[in-house]
Amino acid sequence: MEAGLDLVEIQPNAQPPVCKILDYGRYKYQAQKKAAEARKKQKTVEIKEIKMRPNIDTHDYEVKMRNMQRFFSDGDKVKVTLRFRGREMAHQDLGVKLLNKVREETSEVAKVESAPKLEGRQMVMVLAPLK
Q1: Closest C-alpha among 121, 126, 130, 70 to residue 103
Q2: Beta-sheet pairing, 47-52 with 77-83
């Protein structure tokens, strides 16, 4: 064409198909910029992992809880992993109590996404921040 424009099919499935006369290079560039802008604005949710043992000391527990609160404030999910070693496997009730304690203490900032479940020698629970 003399004007340097292209005939571009916008909606091929419509009856009749919709076409526009425009500069295709510029159209592609603007679509690419719009996609990049959308990618820049989206927030990726990471899963942070907190590892504990059933007989964790109070100070260590408080430090892990503070880290968990920070992760929730950043909008990340938290995977709480409770590892059993040796004869601790016989006392899984202690692990369930500890994970329930974590659930209660984070109830105002997070919800349980997957309930505590045993996977081999570790018990896993996933918490997601409340929006």
Answers
A1: 126
A2: parallel
| Tokens coding 57 | 């000391």
**pTM for this predicted structure:** 0.66
Six token digits for residue 9: 């099919």
State how far the Cα of 110 lies from the Cα of 130, in Å rounded to an integer.
Answer: 5
Model confidence over 95-126: pLDDT tens digits? Answer: 999 999 999 999 999 999 999 999 999 999 99
The residue type at 69? Q
| Sequence-ordered strand ranges (E) for 6-121 | 6-11, 18-22, 47-52, 77-83, 110-119
Residue 33 in tokens? 């910029």
CB atoms within 10 A of CB 63: 12
Radius of gyration of the chain (CA): 26
